[in-house]
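User: My collaborator and I are trying to settle a disagreement about how two of our proteins should look. Neither of us wants to argue from intuition anymore, so we agreed to look at predicted structures for both before our next call. Could you fold the first one, then the second, and keep them clearly separated?

Assistant: That sounds like a sensible way to settle it. I'll keep them separate. The first protein:
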Amino acid sequence: MEVINTIGRRKTSVARIYMQPGKGEIKVNNKDMAEYFPMDVMQIVIKQPLNVVDADGKFDIKVNVDGGGFKGQAEAIRLAIARALCEVDPEYRPPLKKEGFLTRDSRMVERKKYGRRKARRRFQFSKR
């Protein structure tokens, strides 16, 4: 099996991953995952698809992630890993689909409009 290349997006984050058989090493922007995401919650989010299909420790993953914050980046990586696992073995698709890891969460921040304080919040009205 050669290198599998997939993409994942969440909010304004874009994650491109390169997955190949290995011993379970995950590099994010040329840093170890634990160094790039010091919070355990984000590491758990990234490894969720691997744990669902019992593939943790079977693949080396190299990630290039850009834009957004830590949570958006972690969830973009999760989507990319889930898509790559489906390419590796089509039988991985039903459990990943059941957990919702193959669904692209399209919610984005609404833009600020002119004449408003935020996207929908108006300036305070003064009667006098």
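The second protein, kept apart from the first:
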Amino acid sequence: MNNSTLGHLQVNIRSVNIEFYREFFSFLGWKTLFDTEIEPGKKMLGIGDKNGTSLWFVDPLKEVKNDYDGIGMNHLGISVPDKASVDGTVDFLKAHNIQALFETPRHRPEFCGDDKSTYYQVMFESPDKILFEVVYTGPK
């Protein structure tokens, strides 16, 4: 089977933070697929990209601390079409009082295959301590 693609990911969050994800992914151009309260105090948000991949944000069943350096997913990377989109994301994050991490935004030449390409990223934690990367890869 060689025709598979990534379909969806479920990301467990606290419903009180759902507005951040709604605004952030709307800013990135994703469309809302599903947005409702599934039971009192518990919301679910489904958003999709132009390729049909979707993310689903929902309350967790258990309260545990997320550690992106432990077993499990480290970060969720979102590709953007140009360097200006990464810089625009930095502005969005500042407006929402979210700090960029790991000395980003910055170019990462160690992730490029040649001197003509770039890997330009910003990394940050969401209000639920989920690590995200917004990255442009392509010509300098």
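Some points you might bring to the call about the second protein. Residues 56 and 125 are 17 Å apart (CA to CA). The chain has two helices and eight strands.
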